[in-house]
Amino acid sequence: MLLFTVVMSLPGIGLGVIQRIEQRSSFEATRLQPLHLAGKLSSTDAIVGIRGDSYDLFKPEFRHLINLDNLEIGDYYGNLSASVNCYDSYSGEAGVLRPLPEKLDPLEFRLIEPAPQHSWITMFGKRVMRTQWGYGCDLYLHTMI
Hints:
Blueprint: H1 2-31, H2 33-40, E1 47-51, H3 55-58, E2 64-67, E3 80-86, E4 109-113, E5 120-123, E6 126-132, E7 137-142
Parallel strand pairs: 1-2, 1-3
Antiparallel strand pairs: 3-7, 4-7, 5-6
């Protein structure tokens, strides 16, 4: 029974190891993005909205970081100084910018830095999983800043 369990878990362990190796360069590039965005904002009290699973990566740089995926009430949408669209759990098409949240007017935000290159999980050239294993976020500034 123990041998069966070990044999059955080997593919998952192998994929996890490969995923960690492949993610490293993407994660290193993404770690610089919070500092870049903070340098573009005029105030340390600026409200920044983030969409995706990289909240913990950006939180040390911003006192007022709002997770737009969990926000039901639109009170903060009008006060955002910047928006961050992350791809770490995005399942959209490869090579296409992730759209801003519906409550944000795309005309009010300009892209200042696209996400670093990210990798889709493929097998024989075909995408096999809905999510990707690269990090990276598109950084947007409100046009009034």
